[in-house]
Amino acid sequence: MNSITRHMTSQILTVAIVASVILCTAVVLQQSIRFIDLIVNRGLPASDLAYLSLLITPRILSVVLPVAVFGATIFTYHRMQTGSELVILRSAGMNSFRLAKPGLIAAVICTFFSYFFALYLMPVSSQELRTYLSTARSEIGAILIKEGQFNAIRDDLTIYARRREENGDLIGLIIHSEQSNGDQVTVIAQRGAVVNSPTGARILLANGRQQTLSQGELHDIEFEEYVFDLVEEQQTGPELWQQPRERFLPDLLSPSNSPGDVAYRGELIAEGHGRLAQPLLAIAYVAAGLVILLKTEFSRQSNAKPILAAVAIMVGLLVVNLGLISSAGKYAVLIPVMYGMVVAPTVVALYLLARPQQFKRRAKPSELQEI
């Protein structure tokens, strides 16, 4: 890599990083609105909002990064074009493909990072986010149990306390829970206390009874002491079903035979192929944009037209790719088309960049007089 290529590549990457931070921050702030309820109504510390925002960042970056490197490439080359730097480089013997090399290198680097985000960081952070929110809703909701009210800790858990004493103990407790297997559990106790444990929040109950309705039969048990787990029940084995964004690539491309995986088999496979195809969009975006900028005649009077054309191509590729990922879950025949819509524009753009520039011959003065 010569000094010119290295300099241009560093410029593109610098602008891409800044653009990624700005775009990602804007999207994260918009997505973080759904966490405000945990802070305002459930007492989640405001400092935890930053951690939750960090957990959703990899999923956003996997989409934002290709767009950012495209914008950085267009910005850098257009600035060099208006400053006549590209004209000087062409005069020095650099053809279109050599001029496009820094942008393509930046796109390849972006593609590697996009794969890292999509194949590793996104499932890891999504799993952590799900676990954290489940625990936070249970623990914080339990701490903020209001006396004399039915408190919905989760969709499947409601707690009533007649009174809260100064030391935090709860008097006159009623707890109703719906289990994942369909059983309904109601616990009545004279008193209880919320405590934290390594596995999450619990309520220590004293002097009460537990009634369980299972398959139409009622089971009644009296107790002197009882521990009720507030953390959402963690399913295991065949009952576990993870969202597509929480899965690693092998789990997406080869779903299990569990009922959930069988029902959503097409969507899981489409998501897996989408993670393989989408990062390649960075190269397609940049290659197509560079063809527009480097292969069209530059005019200061209409210098915005190539940029608008490049942006239109980028948006078109993005929309088509997202549509194919969504539709491929129902129509598996679209999976090869998904790859084709990424690879074909890239190959065509690289061919056009490598093809020798065709210059128009200017008419001689004598020819103009004859006309």
Automatic annotation (TrEMBL):
Signal peptide location: none
Main location: membrane
InterPro entries: LptG/LptF_permease
Keywords of the record: Cell membrane, Membrane, Transmembrane, Transmembrane helix
One Gene Ontology term, aspect cellular component: ATP-binding cassette (ABC) transporter complex
Protein origin, superkingdom: Bacteria
Presence of keyword Hydrolase: no
Listed GO biological process terms: lipopolysaccharide transport
Name listed for the protein in its UniProt record: LptF/LptG family permease
Naturally occurring in which organism (per UniProt): Hwanghaeella grinnelliae
